[in-house]
Amino acid sequence: MKQEYSIFILSLQFLTRIPVRSDGHYTALRMAEIPRYFPLVGALIGAAGGAVFLVAHELLSLGSAVLVCVAATVALTGAFHEDGLADTFDGVGGGTSKSRALEIMRDSRVGTYGTLAVVVALLLKIAVLTELPARYIPTALILGHTVSRLSSVLVLIQGRYVRDEGAGKPVAQGLSVKSTWVAVITAVLVTLLTWLLVGGVPIIAAIGAMLVAHVLLRLWIEQKIGGYTGDTLGSIQQVSELGCYAGLAACL
């Protein structure tokens, strides 16, 4: 139990800016297994965003409340995934070769492609969530943040890490069978819960749209650099989350 708790704390620290202490928890082996809790941490982030929305909607219009809750989730993660989205679009979009793309992604400066990618993604996220009935938005946030992080985990399971060092290196050796099943089962349970709350057709549409977004972005990235980096995991999470919301909005 202590081992699982330590892995969860490391996962929470890796994906969020929640001030948790990792003293006594860190080992290289535990760090390699933190993706097993990515969907669970995502569910917690989505639940926090949903709670912020419920409070904000008591005081503000629907659109303003959505803006506040999206801003809250960005603050909670420290724009971790948005940074990956920006770096990916700068590197893959602007690099003329694999080496140049990876070099651009290393650069701490944000270019035109990256800036536009983040701005458009956030605007689309807010617009699509605003299309949903207010009562479904907290559920949508929980589902989107959960399954989009499973989307990133799928890349870890199937893909190849293309750097010698980097943010994705600790989890670049692939996942154990146990970690894979924990991540998948967590996402499936959250999906089934939202199925009960929202209905089957919208959830099927949401997962389908997420998978389309995952596949299209991943094909584009892998065509250019031949695998993934920590930045591209963030970009896949962001695009998958947006796809999930779009699928829900199409039905609801």
Q: Report the major sheet.
A: none
Helix percent reads over 70%
Rg calc: 17 Å
Tally of separate helices: 11
Number of strands: 0
Q: How far apart, in Å, are the first and last alpha carbons? A: 40 Å
Give an overview in words.
With 252 residues, this protein is an all-alpha fold. It has eleven helices and no strands. It has helices at residues 2-15, 28-32, 38-59, 62-77, 80-94, 98-106, 112-131, 137-158, 177-198, 200-225, 230-251. Helix 4 crosses helix 7 (112-131). The longest helix has 26 residues, at 200-225. It starts with a helix and ends with a helix.
What's the structural blueprint in terms of helices and strands?
Elements: H1 2-15, H2 28-32, H3 38-59, H4 62-77, H5 80-94, H6 98-106, H7 112-131, H8 137-158, H9 177-198, H10 200-225, H11 230-251
Short description:
The chain is an all-alpha fold. It contains eleven helices and no strands.
Task: Give keywords.
0% strand, globular, 252 residues, mainly alpha
